[in-house]
Design goal:
alpha+beta; Phage tail protein beta-alpha-beta fold; 15-stranded mixed sheet; 20 strands
């Protein structure tokens, strides 16, 4: 459950039977996020976990996950826990139903991670298949999409307010002109002036998106990511898309080329680029908060990434051509079985799929 940890690769590693290709896959998974690195370190050092894997007694159960996450610690082996208010909004539940469920207990703990010389941080993670709502110490509301983490200093709100996000998050920021609010992603810094906005910044996706719903904000590329270092101010209903690329190239802004769904079309050149799409439909940016997954003329290969996070599954394309099938529509509280059947029935192409626990295999008929 949870993070799609590659247990089979770990087992091969412990048995000294891992191939170079599998070792590369395992290293890529480890380096894809800070949480993955801490999980990797703990598995590598915990004798009970290694013994369970080697003896085929590791069943990935709730209890075993609870035991694992309760001892996870960063590389410097220093950790302290604090329990304060943590409000979790589970799935697509209507209204403000506050739920702290046992299934999320061991995932969504307030962890104050002590870094050598870097102070203390609170780290919160929303796993695959879950959407989570939290309230920051300044009463700012944040919704975290699946496989999203947020980190902020324990000293948050003393002088300034800063958070770091990996994944997708929706913010409703408490206005405070004396304490600016900043959101940091891998490539962009967002300065907020009291507003509602959506940020999408997954490490394994090439595009970072910022959509302003109401209020005012600006975006600045991080130093070294481009030659462009000026603030770009967004108006309500503006959507800014940053295309990652070869950061030695120059950065341009082009709001003229965009697809029919408001998302700018990307050219084939491998260089960073900023594109601004005005007058987008803000309601579409909020659908994931309500438990709805939207597709607008989207490739199956790109959709698969969203479906994997949304349902905590792994999709395998046994025929590459299926990746280019396109779909338009939305999923609203369907199970993964219902979703896969609906996609198959609505497709203009014939294909079949097979589900084996959390793995889905697609191939042409």
């Amino acid at each position: 459950m949870g993070m799609h940890i590659p247990w089979e690769l770990f087992k091969k590693l412990l048995q000294n039977q891992i191939t170079e290709h599998d070792r590369e896959l395992l290293n890529q998974w480890r380096d894809s996020s800070e949480f993955n690195r801490t999980v990797y370190d703990e598995i590598a050092e915990d004798e009970s976990i290694k013994e369970a894997l080697l003896n085929n007694t590791w069943e990935n159960t709730t209890k075993q996950w609870n035991d694992l996450v309760s001892v996870i610690k960063p590389a410097d082996k220093m950790i302290s826990f604090s329990r304060t208010r943590l409000y979790c909004l589970a799935g697509a539940a209507a209204g403000f139903l506050l739920l702290i469920g046992f299934s999320l207990f061991f995932w969504l703990q307030y962890e104050q991670l002590k870094r050598n010389g870097n102070g203390e941080f609170t780290y919160i993670y929303s796993p695959r298949g879950q959407r989570t709502q939290i309230i920051l110490p300044d009463s700012t509301h944040v919704w975290l999409n699946s496989e999203t983490s947020i980190r902020y200093p324990v000293a948050y709100n003393q002088k300034i307010r800063e958070v770091t996000v990996e994944g997708e998050a929706f913010f409703h920021v408490k206005k405070n002109t004396e304490k600016p609010f900043f959101v940091h992603t891998s490539d962009l810094k967002i300065k907020v002036y009291g507003t509602s906005f959506n940020v999408k910044a997954y490490a394994d996706e090439r595009y970072i998106e910022t959509t302003l719903i109401e209020g005012k904000l600006s975006v600045i590329p991080n130093k070294g990511k481009s030659d462009y270092d000026h603030e770009i101010f967004l108006k309500p209903k503006d959507k800014l898309t940053f295309k990652k690329g070869s950061f030695s190239d120059s950065l341009s802004i082009d709001g003229s080329t965009k697809s029919k769904n408001g998302t700018p079309r990307m050219d084939s050149k491998d260089k960073p680029k900023l594109m601004l799409a005005p007058n987008i439909n803000p309601d579409q940016e909020n659908l994931w908060k309500e438990g709805k997954l939207l597709f607008n003329d989207e490739r199956f290969g790109d959709m698969a990434i969203k479906l994997e996070r949304w349902y905590d599954v792994k999709i395998h394309f046994q025929d590459e051509e299926i990746k280019n099938y396109r779909f338009t529509g939305n999923l609203d509280k369907e199970t993964i079985n219902q979703a896969m059947e609906a996609l198959k029935l609505s497709s203009q192409h014939s294909y079949k799929y097979e589900m084996v626990f959390r793995d889905i295999y697609l191939k042409s008929k």
